[in-house]
User: What shape does this take?
Amino acid sequence: MKKIIICLALIFIFINVSIINLAVENEEQDNVYLGVSKSEIKSGEEFSFTINLANINVVAFDLNIHFDENLFEYVSGPENTNVINGRIITSWYDDTGGNNPKQNCELVKYTLKAKEFGNELISIQGEFYNVEGGLIQSFTDGIEIVLAEDKQTEKIEISEQSKVSDDNSKLDVMRLNQEGITPVFSPEITEYYFLTDSLNSLEVTAIPQNSKSEVNITGNTNFKEGLNTINIEVISPDKTSKTEYKIFLTKTNNLEYANANLETLAIENVTLEPEFSNDVYQYNATVSNTTNDLNILAIPEKQNASVQITGGKNLEYGNNEIIINVIAENGYTKKEYNVVVYKRNEEEQKIADEEKQINVEKLSAILASQDGNGQTEQQDNIKNRIIEELKNNKWWIIVAFAIAIIIAISVIYRKKVTR
Assistant: This one.
């Protein structure tokens, strides 16, 4: 009987040690961590942050980072990164099929620049995958950046502004005292849209790139029902250049009838850059030298809204502009989407075809190499799956093992008692 008690005690200790090991392993799974160069910066300063790996093999990952474009300017990041409306998107996968995973390294590094004073949280979300495409870890974190006021920085900015040419008539900053303007401001974009059901006026802040430029703002008060236009006129210091920015403001009690968004914008066999979003109005694309006409699909969010497409036929070499106008159900709210399609000439097409052929040959070589080792890799994958399953089901294996030991001891004890 003493032997049985001792055995049961050993089993109990074994199970508790295993549970502790599982808890430690779960803690060790948090193998993605942030690094920040500085958390307090001044206007005009740059800062960097990194996402780092430890103790896990990553063959693919997706990262989504959100920041306020009014406070920060994106400076640099990995090559496989897109930046759209304050959102940084980075995706990567090991094109060798998992032979060169990322481990114990600085995975990515981003650099941003402070634009204005204030505090802001930069949010980060990521997913990391193993060689079999399985999710091995999710990651969510944030960086709080404090933008401190610095009078010396202001003097430097004024000094830099004085270097702007006297024929410059562009804005550096444009914002409203109410949220809702689209698209996000850019000095090169001159048309914007705004919807309201009750506002009678808007406060417009317009700061020119050259501080000596003349800025005239009209139409931002006494809004009537229907379509209103706010004009921001910027005249260069030497009076030789003028840029007009317009905000098309619709005031209506029925905002649904003022919906002039596109739900879908696509061109057959053509890739839009950036990827379509209903609040992005400028796109670029490239086509071959033999493409003459484009099949354009433009569907509005509201069924009764109308769409008018200009361009896309009889393409010429170089840039071709396509304009898609969307008129809302109310008949007066409009939005304009633009696509600049670049048609290659014969020489450019030849270079593009050669590059494509080189990429195809590289991919074929990789696939052939993988096929040659296919059986071995398949065996390794099966082995890895078994190990992974054992890891995922470790708790049940421990319990089953303990029960088996208890049953075996009970059978042996009964035989001894029977004798």
